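Input record (one chain):
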Amino acid sequence: MNCSDSTSAAPESLHPSLWLASQLARASTHCIDTGHPLLSSQLPGGGWPTGTLIDLMLQQPGIGEMRLLRPALEQVAARRIVLLQPPHPPQALALAALGVPPSQLIWLRTSRTADTLWAAEQVLRSGSCGALLFWQSQHLRGENLRRLHLAAQAGETLFFMMRPLTAGHDASPAPLRLALRPQAGGIEIDFVKRRGPQRDAPLFLPLGLPLPLTTYLQQRHASLDRSAPAPVAARGLRSELVH
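The corresponding structure, as predicted from the sequence alone:
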């Protein structure tokens, strides 16, 4: 190859992890549509990457992150959805509104950070779950994040880690890091890290109010008397994953 050939070659033809600084990188893994065209157009591959750590840093829990993730969770709900250390116990009706049957959900609760990290690795390495949503309020060392990122690469699980905004100052192996803040009618998204050009201006993403729950349940023929799953201790996880 002569010099002119090498300078004109597309970066991804040399190595899949290379891209032009002015363009979004190609996705190196399968992506799930976000369900929000404004957001998808700003992400490499046009969606949420599977088999990798996605860092979502929240001003506080409950600002609309579940409505943000709802379209993606609906797409992967044929497999188990795992909630690890959620800030509040999951409610059956709220799960139905998210398109996640309670029977498809595993709620994991632990008392030690070591058990929490162990449970997250087991879920990711099992390859049997559609998504893992992991809330972590404490600081995690870089080596722990790298272990989780490596474990995620064992399958095609959607892996979202929800952490405080202050975590944005820490290094992370996650190829996609977004900071979320509430705004009237939706949320504001800052692109802390992505494989592509830096975006300085935040993206406002409208999040319409969900349908009245009774209307949603009637449309989906969901039962009102379904109970939310009981929490599973970390060490009892293996039996849940093989069911």
